[in-house]
Specification:
seven-stranded mixed sheet; single chain; four-stranded mixed sheet; 11 strands; disordered C terminus; alpha/beta
């Protein structure tokens, strides 16, 4: 691995970790079997999103690299290659843990140059993946944000967020807090194959109900809508109906996008589980990482109509509560639902 290029020992200005900062651990318990943790002391944690990004936020905090949720479509897989780690099984099982994340957040928010901008979390890999149950980095991060009254948002597939509900309520009393749970479909068979390390869609929607019942507004990112596997009208209807029943304040559909790194891994999975769909995907994504505009419009329109039918929709809370990963802009057509 390229730890020597990313630590202070190389003397380079772009070092991510301090010298002698990496400790590798394997933990032989059922919940972590097959997973290796690389514990690092990061040099910084509040990161600016590149200016060319389509993300609707400017700053992020990511306490982990790699994700045991093992979603076959995860767009963040390519980032594991920066460490010379495998972007397939390695992304699922080689987890980098920034053990000093809470203290770094507190220090960087206290710097004179920090202006209190919105911070998004869970937009690269999930901050409430299984590793968080062991390392408990998020409570310290939320406490630092709460103490500075700094607005933030969290996007997650992890029900472990409920552990931090008291802290989230405290933070919401002093600043803008946006919570969104990702549920792209409710099909149990599809879930088991494409998101094998995540809590079930039903468990995630139960978490939405718990959050909203506790007074924390929670939207659902209906992502990804997977072409030919999760986009049938009855599937969309079942998913939106379940989202509405959870008490979600909004629903935002996002169609599967396949960036380099994720595309290769997803295509290999597709060839194994649904070989008859490989050519259809090649045609649909021949233009790049995103599905065609007409298809994005179609899905947005269908979900918009279903959301109206079941009584959920955008609530206009403003940019501090927008945590959706944006699709490629779609020209004039049905408006995309806001997330929160």
């Amino acid at each position: 691995m390229r730890w020597e290029n990313l630590t202070g020992g190389s003397g380079g200005p772009a070092a991510l970790f301090g010298a002698d900062a990496v400790v590798t651990r394997t933990i032989d318990t059922p919940e972590f079997r097959g997973i290796t943790f690389h514990e690092v002391r990061a040099r910084s944690i509040v990161n600016r999103v590149p200016g060319a990004s389509r993300m609707p936020f400017e700053w992020t905090v990511n306490p982990y690299r790699g994700c045991s949720h093992a979603c076959v479509y995860c767009f963040a897989r390519k980032t594991h290659g920066y460490l010379d780690l495998d972007t397939g099984l390695g992304f699922d099982s080689q987890i980098v843990v920034k053990t000093n994340a809470p203290e770094l957040v507190r220090r960087e928010l206290g710097a004179r140059r920090w202006t209190g901008a919105h911070i998004a979390m869970g937009t690269n890999v999930d901050c409430y993946q299984r590793a968080e149950g062991r390392y408990r980095l998020m409570p310290g991060i939320i406490e630092a944000l709460r103490d500075r009254a700094n607005p933030f948002s969290i996007l997650t597939k992890g029900t472990l967020i409920l552990r931090d509900l008291p802290l989230l309520r405290e933070a919401a009393e002093v600043t803008e807090v946006g919570i969104s749970v990702s549920v792209g479909f409710t099909d149990a068979a599809l879930w088991r194959t494409v998101e094998p390390g995540t809590p079930s869609p039903a468990a995630r929607l139960n978490a939405v109900r718990t959050l909203t019942d506790a007074g924390i507004e929670c939207g659902v990112l209906m992502a990804p809508v997977i072409p030919f596997l999760g986009d049938a009208p009855e599937q969309l209807r079942d998913t939106v109906r379940a989202i509405a029943a959870s008490g979600a304040t909004s629903v935002t559909p996002l169609v599967l996008h396949l960036r380099p790194g994720a595309r290769e891994w997803f295509t290999a999975w597709l060839g194994e589980h649904h070989p008859h769909l490989v050519e259809r995907y090649e045609r649909m994504y021949a233009g790049g990482s995103y599905a065609p505009t007409w298809y994005q419009r179609q899905i947005t329109r269908q979900v918009h109509e279903l959301a109206a039918e079941f009584g959920i929709g955008p609530n206009g809370r403003g940019p501090a509560r927008r945590t959706a990963l944006p699709e490629r802009p779609v020209p004039a057509g049905p408006a995309q639902l806001t997330l929160l």
